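User:
Note these tokens:
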Amino acid sequence: MNIRNIDLNLLVVFDAVMRERSVSKAAQTLALTQPAVSNALNRLRRMLDDPLLVRARQGMEPTPRALELFAPVQRALLELDQCLVKPASFDPANSEQLFVIAATDYVALLLLPRLLKLLERQAPGIEVQIRNFGPENPEAALEAGEFDFAMGRFFDLSPRLQRQLWLEERLCCLVRKDHSQIKKRITLKQYLALGHVWVSSNERRGMVDRWLQDQGHQRKIVSVIPNYTTAAMVVAETDLALVLPERFADDFCQLLPVKVLPLPMELGAFTVDILWHPRHASTPAHQWLLERLSDVASLMEVE
């Protein structure tokens, strides 16, 4: 079957009937007569050689073929709608739009103070909501509109998502300032002898652990904590060590009796990316916020 031979209006009818599970209700939704909807549904049935929906006690029951088609048809119609509708103008100074960003604890700590300070001057009515998420692929949530952007480290991403580098980062080690065993530097032997705090939502291995495994070593994880602020407070009161990104390690040194040391291994830098779904690519509001996120990254480079 060739797409050129299909009347796209038939897919609009199919989508409405699938959602309503009723020809009469679909007709009301589409502002059409019931015979017109029935006729369109019958045309699509003949084209696809499948009954698609059959009468049942609780309305109309979709066939396996209809269920297989429903989600792709919905996505296609939504993307067509987004493509054809002219984007509304966006005035950040007067906007009260809510943006939802899925971010790791690390990204939220870096991003929010700087972004909200910037928005105070440029867009005081805009609200930003941060939602934490783990290492799961964010594609489904972005596609469903649960959040506007996702920020963090991502692997094995779908090519459907759009991606932009936010910043590059390196890891360091945090220990108590008056640590009895660690002075100005830490050797690999000392590092392995310490107990460690690991910050993670549900992972147990990171860059350090993969390097250690390649060298035939393993560190002792004493506690798994979901955020860096709590972990740094634990380190300030114990002889435990914490691996964390360099960019805000110095902030903890100003707030807590802790010190920053280079790791006893060379791991190189890692990247933090911004992700969004293609349907937002031409939306002025999303484009504006994406530019502000880039502004925040630029500010951190000169701080």
